[in-house]
Amino acid sequence: MVKRSEVRVEDTWDLSHIFSSLAEQELAQNKLQDDAADFVSRYRGQIESTTSAEFLVESWRDLEQLISDGTEVASYIFLDYSVDMINQEKMRRNMTTNNVISKIFSDISFYESELEKLPEELIRKAIELEAGSAKFFGDHLRERPHRLSAASEQLLTALNGATGSLPEQIYDSAKFADLSFPDFQVNGKKYPLSFASYEEYYWMHADTGIRREAFRVFSENLAKYRNTIATGYYSHVKQDVILAEKRSYENVFTYLLQDQQVEESLYHRQIDVTMDKLAPHMRKYAQKLGENWQLDRVTYADLKLPPLREKSISVSREKAEQLVLGALEIMGDEYRDLAKRAFEERWMDFAENEGKSTGGFCSSTMNTHPYILLNWTGQMPDVFTIIHELGHAAQAEISRKTNNALNASPSLYFIEAPSTFNETLMSQYLIRTSKDPDVERMVAAQMSSNTYYHNFVTHFLEAHWQREVYRAVAADQALTADDLDQLFLDTLQDFWGDDVEMTPGAERTWMRQPHYYRGLYSYTYSAGLTVATAVSLRIEKEGQAAVQDWLDTLALGGRKTPLELARNAGVDISTDKPLCDTIAYIGSLIDRL
Ligand SMILES: [Zn+2]
């Protein structure tokens, strides 16, 4: 792989739209620190005793400005680091900026505690004066009944800084620093193995001998840290259970869902209905894999094979742009132009180089357009990644016009809806415009394996397991690595039945994901994808009216709850219909294979 310094300029993003130079960023960072100090001297001790709603609104505006400027200052440094993570200077710079930002957060944390002392009435008055503050003050009021005494909160904040993320840090250290994998051998030939190479390469390897042996050796070595990681994770879950109880939430799920603004029933329904209705389709998918690849039996180690044996289609950058813009045409000029600018003004970093962050992501701030990190290899799945990330970008770009830094992003529940929605647009477009009958199968393969298998099924299985773990710990059960293994195996067997052989090591899948340390995150992939699928099916049927509803929904940012956002887009997630429709749609894709 080439070094970052050898990458062509046209393959990189242009960060000068945020700051023209490092020197300019430094000036902004210094100013940010001064502004934060001003904020403290102006408001500390003043908020708790104020009787003026105007003063409160003013303080909220200053806070919003600080957050907004802070993300700009941090993202310039972070983005530059993310494409060259082995560069020590960039690494140091990123750490320094992170320290500056955390210090500011800790300095201004008095604000929430002081707000708490104010009568609710006064806060409501502030919301009336400035509608943009409704999200921030509303969140504060909703959390208020669950806050502990000032002394307890202070103690928790201090402890949280020291140990709150310890389980995740232990996990990361075990996974990235301590775990190592030996070479493995197939037919006398040696193959090097690492965590990344297993997940990005051997897992979908076309040679059955190599694929299964890689899985065996990978799982066997994963086991070296099973007790360490299990102990850390158990303590993480236990902590949530204790906090939920002390903060008087109904149960640990309502506690964890508070931020997402989602009813507990929606969470359970997503998991229960998927287990019940999607499993039969996916078992059929496993059978198709076995047929297409002529396997003796389908094992857990085979499930990530591409559904079709044909090589995927190569695509040039120019062709990718053409396809993306073509697929987005239905969204109207404004949306399409935004995508066009992303290509023309270098919002995207295409290069594949040493030390670059893997996969793809989109990062956005309030004052500049979003940036998209890619690892472009010139294959069809990359085109889907571009349009996926452009979905996040469009959401951010449309939202920042009418919202502020404190209400621009929607709930986690909704985060993957705009992005996966775009993937469905791409597949509809490819099928509509191609005269090649193989394209339909190729698209069905891409959608069922990447879009749906990966986002819907993988993360769903994690979510199902996670729920069982929380239930057990909430019922005062102590869980060891054996128990965590058994719960995962039970989940897999419930889902795949007798159609997939559970190779030893399958039960250790829980050790592979960092999502569990971020609350109830795993299930939101399928939740967002459900909204996305329902909207795209609606657009196919109703055309422009449905497009307009979707654009209006994106503009709402985080001002509404997921239920309201979906309703605004014409999708009623208070019932299980959108989910059942989505599952039926996945079934139809599998039939096309
Ligand atoms: Zn995404």
Give a short account of the largest sheet: 3 strands, mixed
Low-confidence stretches: none
In this entry the ligands are: zinc ion
Instruction: Give the class from helix and strand content and strand pairing.
Output: mainly alpha
Q: If you average the pLDDT, what whole number results?
A: 94
Beta fraction = under 5%
Number of strands: 5
Helix content: 55-70%
Give the CA-CA distance, first to last residue: 35 Å
Provide a concise account of the structure shown:
The chain is mainly alpha-helical and about 600 residues long. The protein contains 24 helices and 5 strands. A hairpin with a 2-residue loop joins strand 1 and strand 2 (about 190).
Features:
single chain, 593 residues, mainly alpha, three-stranded mixed sheet, two-stranded antiparallel ribbon, 24 helices, binds zinc ion
Describe, in plain words, how this protein is organized in 3D.
- The protein is mostly helical and 593 residues long.
- The chain is built from 24 helices and five strands.
- It has a three-stranded mixed sheet with strand order 3-5-4, with helices on both faces.
- A hairpin with a 2-residue loop joins β1 and β2.
- The relative contact order is 0.11.
- The structure holds zinc ion.
- Residues 388, 392, 416, 419 line the site of zinc ion.
